[in-house]
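pls design
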């Protein structure tokens, strides 16, 4: 049987305080025009978005019919 270790499952086994994100930082987004603070983003969320986007692009772009076939030499 395959067991999928989700955060909710781990929280039932462990103390929820032990299941906190390892990255506890904030990403600040500033305006390029006047330098005003536009947004504060949780770095763990940004990392999850980036990882998901990279995986999606990595699987869909090479398979796109509009892209020419890659040539391999050697």
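designed seq:
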């Amino acid at each position: 049987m395959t067991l999928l270790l989700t955060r909710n499952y781990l929280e039932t086994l462990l103390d929820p305080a032990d299941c906190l994100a390892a990255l506890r930082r904030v990403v600040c987004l500033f305006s390029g025009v006047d330098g005003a603070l536009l947004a504060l983003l949780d770095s763990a969320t940004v990392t999850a978005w980036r990882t998901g986007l990279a995986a999606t692009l990595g699987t869909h772009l090479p398979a796109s019919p509009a892209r020419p076939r890659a040539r391999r030499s050697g």
